[in-house]
Structures are given as structure tokens and as C-alpha cells.
Amino acid sequence: xxxxxxxxxxxxxDWGIVEVEETKDRHIFGFSSHYNFYVITQKxxxxxxxxxxRQGSALTESGILYALTGKPVSYSPNxxxxxxxxxxxxxxxxxxxxIERFNLFYLNDFFQKxxxxxx
Length: 119
Hints:
This protein has one domain. It is 16% helix and 40% strand. Strands 1, 2, 3, 4, 5, 6, 7 and 8 form an 8-stranded mixed β-sheet that branches. It is globular and about 35 Å long. The N and C termini lie far apart (37 Å).
């Protein structure tokens, strides 16, 4: 199931990032306390994670903000039912993304424009 948070900020734990090989789009996969099961988010455009505090956040293309808690997990798309269903539904392949010690994800054009308006 693709996650769509009902609040401004949802919390995802036991999380990892997967990338669609064909488009390079990235999604967070992890446990949502809001839904009480594992979910995959919409395409993320920005994320950060601090290994020292084990806290981070991710922003989706549609503007939904997720809090990321705990140590990142590298999920094998072929071993997770939700990721297998995502690949079948979207006719794509996923691969896990290695999380760096502290990472700022790339900003897409829309988000860069949004930042430039505020400065």
C-alpha cells in the first residue's frame, strides 16, 4: 500500500529507501505507526538522517512530511511482499539505497524554486 499521511507529519520506523531503477525515483519503505503496518511512501524529493540521534525526515513530491526514527534498514525488494506488489503494479524494479552517515537528498526543480521564493 502506498502511504498517504492524514496529518502533516507521519512517523516511519524500521525504514529504508528503495529506488526505482528505471526512473531513479526514491521511496521510503518502513513501519507506519499511523497505519500499524509497513508502507511505501510516494516519491521523496528530500530527506535527511542523523545517525547520532537516529532521527531524520523525508518530504514527498506532494508535500507530505514524514519523521524517520531508528536505524535505517536495507530491505531486499524480492523478500518484501509490499515491495513486490509495488514492482508488479508499476512494472518496475526496485533496489535498496545505502543511507550515508548524514545525508541531504537532491532537491528537484520544484523544491528549489520553492526555496528561492522564500529567500
